[in-house]
Design brief:
Layout (H helix, E strand, L loop, with lengths): L4 E3 L4 E4 L9 E3 L8 E4 L19 E3 L6 E6 L2 E5 L1
Length: about 80
Amino acid sequence: GSGNVIISNTGTTNLNGWNTYTGATTIGSSTTSGGTVVIGTAYAFGGNRVAERTDPYNLVNTAPGGTSYTVTSGTTSTCYR
């Protein structure tokens, strides 16, 4: 469905399912880092459930100093900061 997701914890958040919402995903806030977000599928969140892949530009990071998120594919992973 519609709606936004804000990840505000400072630990690790795993997004392993298929996307279930079409809103923005925000990691952190003006005061919290948002921790580390691990994306376990190419279609973890946002947009069309089948056609739109999760990519770094789909994420909004408002945390000071940046945060990191990892996109995993098989045995490889790429960390963006």
